[in-house]
Design a protein that fits this description.
Layout lengths: L1 H13 L6 E5 L6 E2 L4 E4 L5 E4 L2 H15 L7 H6 L3 E3 L10 E2 L1 H7 L6 E7 L6 H10 L7 E5 L5 H10 L12 E6 L2 H12 L2 H4 L7 E10 L2 E8 L1
Parallel strand pairs: 1-7, 1-9, 7-8, 9-10
Antiparallel strand pairs: 2-6, 3-4, 3-5, 10-11
Length: 228
């Protein structure tokens, strides 16, 4: 938790710098493919091992619907109902394979930009992610890792846009480049940024959100781009 708060303080301080572009990268299945699994025991005793992001999202969506839960990330609510959800694999970077189509882009740090990793993992994963960046030759001092811990990524990105308003009443952020594999998170960011009337009041005239969806294919990965 202390490391998480320190990263947020660094982020708030950085927003005072003359930056115009945010580059935001998801971690799992975006920067690296890991062998992380989620093991679940439901209150009725049934067990499940979720081996990837898609299996995790499908299980949590079905369990939330069954229990009448409507929160964006139902993990905490399900745990309170007696679901034993083992996320320990996500406190480390387990047997990672680098996704170079993304990390090759990440290694280039344009001027007037800031680079973030925004992961849905918990705060205890920040240190291992920073260590992994160093292992693959990325200067971690130029990257800020943010653990959203189940929060809506769209809400977090909207907060980043609102953080510094210039004298003309507009945000200092003119462009966001977002790299993500989860369609659920992509839809959330698109909705919270593109269809947010309140945010429209502070977005600069030339504002652009560019989404780069990371897609697994037979011989590796590809990027599929969309924008608003």
């Amino acid at each position: 938790m202390k490391l998480l708060l320190e990263n947020w303080r660094k982020y708030l301080n950085e927003m005072e710098e003359p930056i115009t572009t945010l580059r935001i990268f998801d971690f799992d299945e975006t920067i690296a493919h890991t062998r992380s699994e989620t093991r679940v025991v439901a209150p009725d005793g049934s067990e499940a091992t979720l081996r990837d992001q898609q299996e995790f999202e499908e299980y949590m969506k079905a369990a939330a619907a069954k229990e009448g839960i409507e929160t964006f990330d139902p993990v905490k609510d399900l745990q309170e109902l007696g679901y034993q959800i083992d996320l320990s694999d996500f406190s480390i970077v387990k047997d990672p394979d680098e996704i170079t189509i993304v990390t090759d882009i990440m290694r280039n740090f344009p001027e007037d930009s800031k680079t973030y990793i925004m992961t849905a993992r918990r705060g205890n994963s920040i240190g291992p992610i920073i260590d992994y960046l160093e292992d693959i030759g990325i200067n971690s001092s130029q990257v800020r890792v943010m653990a959203t811990q189940g929060k809506s990524k769209g809400d977090v990105v909207a907060t980043m846009i609102n953080q510094k308003i210039m004298d003309d009443g507009k945000s200092n952020i003119h462009r966001i480049e977002y790299y993500e594999d989860s369609q659920r998170n992509i839809d959330d960011v698109l909705n919270k940024i593109c269809n947010n009337e309140q945010l429209s009041e502070v977005k600069p005239v030339d504002f652009a959100l560019v989404i780069n969806k990371v897609i697994k294919i037979d011989d590796g990965y590809k990027l599929e781009q969309s924008s608003c």
